[in-house]
Specification:
heterodimer; A: about 280 residues; mainly alpha; elongated; B: about 550 residues; alpha+beta; Tumour Suppressor Smad4; five-stranded mixed beta sheet; rod-shaped
Chain lengths: ~280, ~550
């Protein structure tokens, strides 16, 4: 049975992460340096070392999970640990900084880390929520089969439309030629389209259908049915693309920022010891 | 009009099939509608697309309604036809051929633009994955990483290795500004743009000689012969933490001192200092340094709790109680009420009190006159005795014996003084001086405040013991009177109005301070750490780093 990575092994990694967080908080509360809390006290160095090792380890997981070579540790283990220990970093790294922030490479590394975590949280959210939305929206179909169905409907519409007036035919051809699914990053993420060609055509056709002679009324009604069905499928295809985009987009933030974070982190470490 | 249509169909294998159709009609119409002479079934063709007709000048083609036709590729509404012309009707091309006999026109008609596959059209208009939008994780990763690497790692290092680069950019941007780990303390900000002022060598902790450039005179903490290794080997920066604004450049935390002073014998076995952890909870009773022998200047630290030993030998008698009586004292202008401020004034800066001075504070009431027209000077007992003797000798010599008329030397004018007369006068003066000195020194004036010694024989004089007044009873505690101005003097110095003798050390004990002051962590009193009263670098000791910081080369925190 499918077990969410969140409850994996009865929250084993949540417990680890909580333990790490609570110990960090407790030592921080107990710790009373003669100077303001900062990354340069013994606790600062300790929490900083833990944070840095965690960051590199969690990033390594990104590579690890892409390799199909089965290791001794299951993917679910890695992923569950990644989520919970990543969240624990919010506390450990903040305490490492001693709440000292500024316009410098040190806070840059911290900010990048927080953005990586935030994008990860978003990724977790879409992974928990979107597959169900996607399944509901697809109703057993795939994006490919939706596309085929839309194309078939287009074909039928054109055939029926050819029997009707030129205006009706124009509308049908417009709906066929101008309908697009997805597109730019923004269109994919928002599920929008600048033209909404099929819907526009449908509205136009409803108007035209009223003016059709009785002999063509039946074909007109048939065309309306076909186009309505197509419009619905187009919207579902757009929603499918949107869900997929939402499930993908966070990685376009998470991964590049992780690399930037690692460079900033190395820079942070080098700089503090360079100017010791 | 008789027209021959040759319908051309190209086969998959490359062959061409012709099918001729002859139409005889005044007007030959093309369109999707089946009532046209030439039925063009493709849905892209209008119901009525175009027509051919003969007019003056030849055969014309004409677009029907709003339909579009193309004449050799150019959109036209109507045009005359010539052999070789191509007329585009939707997806069909009509090419004018040589006209055979018995015909008005011959054309070939070919379906040249088949409709796109609806699925392909839809796919070509759609982008259904972010991968195909141009977004690239790899590209963005490289770009961001390189920006961080160059701006925040490479440039600062370049500026450090080649200072000329730093100098060249100094007016525009500080290359290593992004490495600042926090705000500098106020005193160091003026050279804060130059990281290398302190960080002289890469990957080495800030060495003492950076600090000693300005702070060479900073004094030590413990006597050097105590050989406290920690004090001699730790770097200045071990205690003075920069980049925390003004919060840590001078450490005030109690634990900083208590680390050693909670068990000082542990680090310095020979110490005479008492252990201390917290002002409110664990601090020895005050041990003022009091005078024990004012002549030999012997000073001794005595705890306020040691009531027997707590007696100062200052050679001065000053009963506070007689001066601070409620009803007042007799002054030159009548009864006046004295307060602490009558004699004690804050020194400039407010830390201590100005010395009490005979001339300023005492002499208005305590005049040193022994005759209505003559006073002894203060501060020099030999001179005081001389003044008395000279006064009476002079009186005797001018024949003025004061009020002693019975023995007044009488002589006639113009007649010299006889030896007998002189002898009488000097004997009188001698006796008068001696008597007066007894009164002045031993009874009415000097003895009031001082320890006096009568002459041991006839050749000796009256002596006044030199007093020793301690300026600060607690030289290691920087108590600031000015900070406590809102409190009455006697709230702390309770004994003052009752004190009968200068032997009293009228100093408040630690519990008096603890009414308001507690240790660092108190919540209901003034949190007071060690540095509120004590200094680390003690002015009475020599420089902390007499060797210019060479000893402090130990690397480590």
């Amino acid at each position: 049975m499918h077990e969410s990575i969140l409850v994996y092994r009865r929250f084993r990694y949540l417990k680890w992460a909580l333990l790490l967080t609570i110990i960090s908080l407790a030592v921080y509360a107990y710790h009373a340096p003669v100077e303001p809390p900062n990354g340069g006290t013994w606790l600062g160095y300790t929490l900083g070392t833990i944070s840095a090792l965690l960051i590199f380890w969690l990033a390594w997981l990104g590579i690890k999970k892409r390799s199909y070579r089965a290791g001794t540790v299951k993917l679910e283990d890695w992923l569950s640990a990644h989520v919970y220990l990543g969240l624990a970093l919010i506390f450990v790294a903040t305490l490492h900084a001693g709440f000292q922030f500024g316009w410098n490479v040190h806070t840059l590394a911290y900010t990048l880390m927080m953005l990586v975590i935030l994008s990860g949280v978003f990724g977790l959210y879409v992974y928990v929520r979107y597959p169900r939305l996607m399944t509901e929206n697809r109703r057993g179909a795939t994006l490919g089969s939706l596309f085929s169905e839309i194309a078939e409907l287009d074909h039928e519409c054109i055939e029926v439309g050819a029997q009707l007036t030129d205006e009706v035919r124009d509308v049908v051809l417009y709906a066929s030629e101008k309908t697009s699914i997805g597109g730019s990053v923004w269109r994919q993420l928002t599920g929008t389209d600048p033209e909404y060609a099929t819907q526009t055509a449908l509205v136009k056709l409803r108007e035209l259908a009223r003016g059709l002679p009785t002999s063509q009324a039946k074909s007109g009604r048939q065309l309306l049915t076909l186009l309505s069905r197509k419009s619905e499928l187009v919207q579902r295809a757009r929603a499918d693309v949107q869900y997929k985009a939402m499930m993908d987009i966070w990685l376009y933030v998470h991964v590049p920022l992780t690399f930037a974070l690692m460079i900033a982190l190395i820079t942070h470490i080098i700089s503090v010891f360079f100017y010791w | 009009m008789r027209v021959r249509f040759s319908h051309i169909t190209r086969k998959a294998k490359g062959g061409i099939a012709y099918r001729d159709e002859d139409i005889d009609s005044d007007t030959v119409r093309f369109g999707r509608s089946t009532d046209n002479e030439v039925h063009l079934a493709d849905p892209r063709v209008n119901l009525q697309q175009a027509s051919l007709s003969t007019r003056t000048g030849g055969v014309f083609v004409e677009a029907a309604g709003n339909a579009q036709i193309r004449h050799n590729g150019a959109p036209k509404v109507s045009t005359v036809l010539a052999v070789g012309d191509t007329i585009g009707l939707g997806p069909y091309d009509l090419v004018i051929a040589e006209t055979p006999e018995d015909f008005d026109l011959a054309v070939t008609l070919e379906f040249v633009r088949p409709p796109g596959d609806e699925l392909e059209v839809l796919k070509s208009h759609s982008v259904t994955s972010l991968v195909n939008t141009g977004l690239s994780k790899r590209g963005m990763s490289w770009a961001l990483s390189l920006v961080v690497l160059v701006l925040f790692l490479a440039l600062p290092i370049v500026g450090f290795v080649w200072p000329a680069v730093n100098d060249a950019t100094s007016g525009i941007v500080r290359l290593d500004a992004s490495w600042d780990s926090g705000e500098l303390s106020g005193a160091h900000k003026f050279f804060g743009d130059d990281c290398r002022a302190c960080h002289q060598t890469a990957f080495n902790q800030v060495a003492d000689n950076s600090c000693l450039t300005c702070h060479a005179k900073v004094e030590g903490h413990a006597h050097r012969d105590l050989k406290v290794t920690e004090l001699e080997q730790e770097r200045c920066a071990h205690c003075h933490k920069e980049h925390n604004a003004n919060d840590a450049i001078v450490i005030t935390a109690q634990s900083f001192c208590a680390d050693c002073h909670a068990d000082l014998k542990g680090t310095t076995a020979s110490t005479k200092l008492l252990d201390v952890r917290d002002f409110g909870e664990d601090h020895p009773e005050f041990r003022p340094t009091i005078a024990k022998d004012p002549v030999l200047a012997v000073m001794q630290r005595v705890a306020l709790s040691d009531k027997e030993a707590l007696s100062e030998q200052s050679n001065l008698k000053y009963p506070h109680d007689k001066h601070l009586v409620e009803k007042g004292v007799r002054g030159p202008e009548g009864i006046e009420k004295l307060t602490c401020a009558s004699c004690h004034a804050l020194e400039r800066g407010g830390a201590g009190l100005l010395p009490v001075d005979m001339e300023t504070h005492c002499s208005r009431c305590h005049q040193l006159r022994f005759e209505p027209d003559r006073a002894v000077p203060h501060g020099d007992y030999e001179e005081a005795g001389r003044v008395i003797r000279e006064y009476y000798a002079q009186k005797a010599l001018i024949g003025d014996f004061g009020g002693d008329t019975s023995s007044k030397l009488r002589r006639r004018p113009g007649k010299p003084v006889t030896q007998e007369e002189l002898k009488q006068a000097l004997e009188w003066a001698e006796a008068k001086s001696k008597k007066t000195a007894e009164i002045v020194f031993g009874f009415s004036l000097c003895k009031q405040c001082h320890i006096v010694t009568p002459p041991k024989n006839d050749d000796d004089i009256w002596r006044v013991a030199k007093p020793l007044i301690v300026d600060r009873w607690m030289p290691k505690g920087n108590f600031v009177h000015a900070s406590h101005e809102s409190i009455n003097c006697v709230d702390c110095h309770e004994q003052a109005p009752k004190s009968k003798t200068s032997a009293d050390v009228i100093l408040p004990d630690i519990n008096s301070c603890r009414q308001c002051h507690g240790g660092e962590n108190v919540s209901d009193k003034v949190p007071s750490t060690c540095t509120m009263c004590h200094v680390f670098h003690r002015p009475e000791l020599g420089p902390m780093r007499p060797d210019g910081g060479k000893m402090a080369t130990k690397i480590g925190n």
